[in-house]
Amino acid sequence: MNRRQWFLRGMRAGIPICMGYFAVAIALGISARSAGITSLQAALTSLLINASAGEYVGFALIAAGASYVEVALMEAVANARYLLMSASLSQKLDGRTRLWERLLLGFTVTDEIFGASISVEGKLSPYFTYGAFIVATTGWTGGTFVGAMLGDVLPVRLLSALAVGLYGMFISVFVPEAKKNKVVMALVGTSFALSLALEYIPYVRDISEGIRIIVLTVIISLAAAIIFPVKEDNSRGA
């Protein structure tokens, strides 16, 4: 496929992500307004940061009157997992992918866009991820703007119901692959079990959730790579 075809394919994949993002971002926008941030400022934040956990942390710290240094450090911790996702996606890119294309791809990576991109069979074109991002970010940015406009109008129960949609969408990303591959299914189950266990282990549960996710990701990925290595296809096409 050429770049245009990859881009359009990515846009189609970004539609359900956009819908899930819009619902969840409404709650994010409300939290931004409670921190004294205007609708335009909240929307611009979502457009540039493009990370739910990072934005929630940022808005909470702003509301608490934290310093710039504190905000910067917490943002680095909350968003550090994207370094791992970007490194993983880089392994799927064609060797001819240019540096600026890789850097732009790194900016577009979110949990859901990563899931959609990594599930593409064979080599990945960065234009697929670009297309998914262009569509998805409209829902994320637009939802944040609408939420900030609504303020505290929506009832808490409705906001909770909307938030569930994002988790359901993310589950739908890896369930098909898990059904096809027993190794993936086992790894998903293991990650769920360990994540839950760490919530109850003394001292460990006091560690930042972002750091726990990073450590678990590294350990599980390393173990999977050692125990279930993926054989490289060295055959060359005509």
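the 2nd protein, sequnce then structure:
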Amino acid sequence: MKRLTAKEKEIMDLLWQHGPMFVKELLEYYGEPKPHFNTVSTTVRILEKKGFLGHKQFGTSFQYFPTISEREYGRSSLGGIIRDYFEDSYLSAVSSFVKEEKISVDELKDLIAQIENSKP
């Protein structure tokens, strides 16, 4: 799955949080200075081409909706990061977190215990 740019993620976050919207409605969630309608519209069409959005037509207007959940995107993004930066090794990723003190050894032990307790 392709990764989202910062501007694309901003739009996806709005749609994931608030549900289907027209571009005009998306603009209402932006602070001042608001981006131009055409800028948001172009980004939305790019998201649709990438497969992240679909639309329903209402006359000459389009209401856009996510075709992928936020959770699905997060899982896919994490998988891409693991593949690209940790040679497709989740063990290397976790080891890196421990080495950089992003996760403590005690937290790692707790995680292992949770995994062991969740096995059938």
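The longest strand covers residues 53-58. Helices lie at 6-18, 23-27, 37-50, 70-85, 90-99, 105-118.
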